[in-house]
Amino acid sequence: MVRVMACWGTLMALFMGELAIATTGFGPGICAVAVLMGLVIVFGFMRITLAPPLAAIFALGSLFWLAILLSLGSLDSFTRTNFSVGDTLSSRTQNAVTARDRAP
């Protein structure tokens, strides 16, 4: 139980550090804290060093699969093209209507 509470306390301290870094806007620091949180979970809660080799293989495989899912999920926002729709289209429509209304 002491190990679990120590891991939880470490995660809470890292969370407070992450909040402090977030107020400064330092992006790489937030990523570093997130990696440290992941390492605390893997080595503290999961105790992957004491697990059988097959468990370590599955842990690495799940990280690889998570990387694939995150990269495919981010492709949508990276490759999306925004077309500006606004005044140009609406002004053409309004001009066409007013020109038609003026005709005898």
Automatic annotation (TrEMBL):
Keywords: Membrane, Transmembrane, Transmembrane helix. The keyword Membrane applies. It comes from the Bacteria. The chain crosses the membrane at residues 32-50, 57-75. This is Uncharacterized protein. It comes from Komagataeibacter saccharivorans.
